[in-house]
Every structure is written in structure tokens, then in C-alpha cells.
UniProtKB/TrEMBL annotation:
UniProtKB keywords: Oxidoreductase
Chain ranges passing through the membrane: none
Protein name: 5-exo-hydroxycamphor dehydrogenase
Record lineage: Bacteria, Bacillati, Bacillota, Clostridia, Eubacteriales
Pfam families cross-referenced by the UniProt entry: ADH_N, ADH_zinc_N
Amino acid sequence: MKSKAMVLKEFMKPLEMEEFEIAPLEAGEVLIKIEAAGVCGSDVHMWKGEDPRTPLPIILGHEGVGRIQEIKGKKQTVYGEDLQVGDLVIWNRGVTCGQCFACKILKDPSLCKNRKVYGINQSSAVFPYLNGCYSEYIILNSNTDIFKVEDTVDPALLVSASCSGATIAHAFDMISSVLGDTVVIQGPGPLGVYAVAFAKSMGASEIIVIGGSKERLDLCTYFGATLVLDRHETNIQERNQMIMEKTRGIGADLVVEAVGTRGVAEEGLKLLRSGGTYLSTGYAQPAGEESIDFYRDIVSKNITVHGVWVSDTKHTKMAIDIVMKNKEHFAKLISHRFSLEEANQAIASMNAREALKAVLIPNRG
Ligand SMILES: [Zn+2]
Ligand SMILES: [Zn+2]
């Protein structure tokens, strides 16, 4: 049996279709027929060679939903249910070691130094080769945390739950509550959309989103944002003034950074009230330095700044739950669908910011 996959062999060059022999499974491994593979903003950075984790050659794609084709021996879901051939599943994109300092002592697997991530740091030259989701099939190793999902759900709806959704869940998991708070979200992409959804579900009273695309800001409004500020229609001072007016001169309780480009943290920190919290989720690859006045914007205001690096299995669960409760909303997040062969167009559409969320459907029909 063979699987077609789209392989990145050289940065900035088109992915190439390759056919892989599907290796015999080892104990606990699961062969998945991919039903939907998310095209993430990170994939564009990886394609450009901007993510230092990227080995070549690689099958991109760390966001997948698929059906079990084969299981070697027994494998259970995170709930302890036996998985069966034919089950529709989603999985945690990272596989952690359980042995390192972060896993054992910090109990924070998202910081595992041996974390393997499908489609991000696993080359297609490394056994069992099918290590990414831009593929007809992927082989999940025996330590992968797997969730079974409702058979009737559109698989494309859930792909982002394993990446942007889980990362934002991780961010909100770091704070105790947002009940009644004013939350400012910088960036209306998939991370920002999830941030609106989580802020709303946790009871934020005001949800303000800053972004540069009217379409994306409209989607945030649909998800529950109470005010959207277009970067092209306002400058930094005006946005700051509007947010201060909205909060009676106090500032926002919480700011969620979901952009990852230079200058964003500098603007965002100034929007916080004294004692406020800054959650930075957007820097998935190096983006240069920020110019921060620590005395004025952090120390003299008792500000808490939280870096948010990836996520772990608990956060994937939180993200799946929020998607399943808001299916109609999350359906609108998916702007483009492509076949596996069209993966290069999918990356181009994300790169040009035409697509908010593109999804590959590798096994049509
Ligand atoms: Zn991603
Ligand atoms: Zn570890």
C-alpha cells in the first residue's frame, strides 16, 4: 500500500508530490487516512525557511483529522476507550517524552525538549516517513494522544483545534478567570478568533479586537467581539485612546497577542491596566526584538507577561470542546478548501492572506 504526500524539499520552492510505501505498523501505532489537513500560518513560515525547527525533506501539516485505517495491537483514546478501525479521530500534534525536566519536574509537556511534532520537526526521511498531514495517510506513533470525534462532524472544522485552538486554550489556561473583564485581542487570524471564542465563553464583558482585515474583523464580531479596531483606519495613539475611553481610563484587564510581528507587544502592553496580564501567543518563530520600557509599562504597573509556547493534550481537548459547541461559528473560519495536489496554491493563498484558514482534503470522495 502506498500514500501520496506533498513534500517540502527546498525552502521557497513548490512542494513536490511523492509516493511513499506505507511501512508495516509497530505495536501501538495507528495508520490514519487523512480527511482534512489544516494549512497553518506556521506552514508558510516553514516553507520560507523561517522556522528553525524545520528539517528537510518534510511532509508539512501538523493539523489533521482522519479515519483509522489500521491499528497494530491495541490503542486507546485519552478517555481510555479502545479505538477501532473506521473511527474519526484528531490527535495532539506534539508527542512528548515523559522523561525530561519539563515533563517530569515542571509537569509542563508543552516545554518538553524532546517534543516531536508531526509536520514540524519530523523529516519524511525518518522512519516511518509518513510524519505529516499533507498526505493521504499519516502514521501516529504509540505515544500519540488521540481523541475520537463525532462521526457526523465536518473534519475540516476541527483541524485548527489541534494548533491555534490548543495554543489559545493554553493561554487562557494560564489565567484564573476573565469573568467581567475587558479583553483586548491583537490579531484577528485563527488564533485571534479562538481568543474571542474563549474570552466570550469565560464571560468577558468587553472583547476588543485589533486587526488589519475587515473580513477577519467582521468574523470576530460574529464570534462575539464587542468592538473591532481596523489598523488601517486608526493609528496606535487613537487605538490606545479608544480602549482607555472604553475602560474609563483604566486600561484592559487582559491583552492577548496573536500576531507575532515586531511592534505588536510594544503596542499591546500599553493597553493594559495596572496589574493586568499580557498573553503572548503569536511568536511561533523568531521575529526580532521589541522595544519595551520596562519601568513604565511593566514594573511600575505590576504587569504579568506570559509567553505561551505551543500546547499539550489538555489544551487540545479544550479547543475541541469549544469548536463542538460552536460548530456554525467555526465553519465560517474555513475560507478555502483544496485537494492534496493543490497544496502549493493553499500555501500561496495563506501567504497572500487571501485565505483566513485553508484546509486540504487529501482523500476526496
Ligand atoms: Zn499550526
Ligand atoms: Zn519531555
